[in-house]
Specification:
This protein is of the alpha+beta class and about 160 residues long. The chain is about 20% helix and about 40% strand. The chain is globular and about 40 Å long.
């Protein structure tokens, strides 16, 4: 009887081992064929950092004109050639609204030297024209010049070139 008891025990152990190996094999097969799991966030995602708002400029320069005289409506007839004793008027047309917006006009001589520069605050609630006048008591040196307008330190409008003869 001992033989039966040992045989039964060995047989039971063998069956248990086969059963465990079979289960293990199924797990391996399942793992090898499984698709990668999509990671699931366990904590809420942090909100994206807010993007800086790009605000449109409150006022823009739509035209720049260089001339000698201004009409009653502030318009300036364009002139490309000046005499050394002429007054130079740089006129710029703005669109939009402005409350104490810093504007500037700079005249540069052909070698890049600043021949004149003025700034002023702009206050407007719609389309407007601003004229900036430059005079040189000693006369403007003969040569080529460039007039540039800025709004809040940024180039605005199309620079204009003119000449003094």
């Amino acid at each position: 009887m001992k033989k039966t008891s040992i045989s039964t025990t060995v047989l039971a152990a063998a069956l248990a081992t086969v059963a465990l190996v079979g289960c293990k094999k199924k797990e391996d097969t399942a793992d090898n064929n499984a698709q990668p799991a999509t990671p699931v966030a366990t904590t809420p995602a942090e909100p994206a950092a807010p993007q800086p708002m790009t605000a449109a400029a409150p006022v823009s320069v739509s035209a720049v004109t260089v001339g000698k005289t201004a009409a009653a409506d502030k318009s300036v007839a364009p002139v490309a050639l000046f005499a050394p004793k002429d007054i130079i008027i740089v006129s710029f047309r703005t669109d939009g609204t402005a409350n104490n917006v810093n504007t500037g006009v700079k005249l540069t001589y052909q070698d890049g030297q600043v021949a004149g520069e003025k700034t002023q605050a702009l206050n407007t609630s719609g389309p407007d024209t601003t004229n900036v006048t430059f005079e040189n008591a000693n006369g403007w040196p003969v040569g080529k010049y460039r007039a540039e307008v800025t709004v809040d330190g940024q180039a605005a409008g199309t620079p204009q070139e003119f000449e003094v003869e």
